[in-house]
Amino acid sequence: MRSAVIALTVTSLLFSASPATAESQSRASAEPEVMGFVEWVVMGETGIRLKARLDTGAKTSSLHAVNVEPFEKDNEDWVRFQLPLGDHEDQPSEGDLKHDEVILEFERPVYRTVLIKRKGAPSQRRYVVEMDFCLGGKVHETQFSLTDRGKFSYPVLLGRRLLRDDNILTDSGRTFIAELECEYSTLEELAQSSKAISP
Distance (Å, rounded) from C-alpha 170 to C-alpha 172? Predict the structure, then answer.
């Protein structure tokens, strides 16, 4: 037991000599922020409020998207996609407007593509974009693979890359425990935005 303790101490001293490693250790030693396995997120620049599942079983986060179309802009690869609010109906409403009457359209540079292997189905190529969002009153940014999550309970999945990089710990026994909220738009406000299109 004594030799194991000494070895651990020597290893710690060696790592502390590297500034990059010291920074990583400092981040790892900071108190993690505890979130439930389901939380509200608000996607940046739009005010869309969506339910997100915090999933350590997935490396990359994913976002519900339909009609995903690649195109070229300024000699770069971009992707255009739509987010129909009627697929999950999480957006607060202050009137008689129906969720399926509002579809938001996005355009983003393609960060990369990934090949997803699916059990009992052909592999699927997905586009990955970087997007910022608010979770627990704080702005985060991560990579989202774009896929149709209309048949899933949660339109957003936050993977372990984000959880690791932003020091978030998931409590699998609780939901919606974030202490701070993020500002979001109503369904009517989203319908009036320039990003909304007619279904």
Answer: 6
Q: Is residue 18 part of a domain?
A: no
Give the structural domain span for 99. 33-197
CB 35 within 8 A of CB 53: no
pLDDT for the residue 29: 63
Split into its structural domains, the chain has a count of: 1
Which residues are registered as beta bridge partners of 142? Answer: 131
Residue 21 lies in a domain: no
Distance CA(171)–CA(34), nearest Å, equals 7
What are the distances in angstroms from CA 104 to CA 48, 61, 112, 165, 199?
Answer: 9, 20, 22, 29, 10
**Which residue, chain included where needed, has tokens 């189905």?**
121
> Is 23 contained in some domain?
no
Q: What is the pLDDT of residues 166-190, one digit of tens each?
A: 999 999 999 999 999 999 999 999 9
Closest CA to 152 of 73, 66, 92: 66
Q: What average pLDDT does this structure show over 90-119?
A: 92
Q: What is the pTM of this model?
A: 0.81
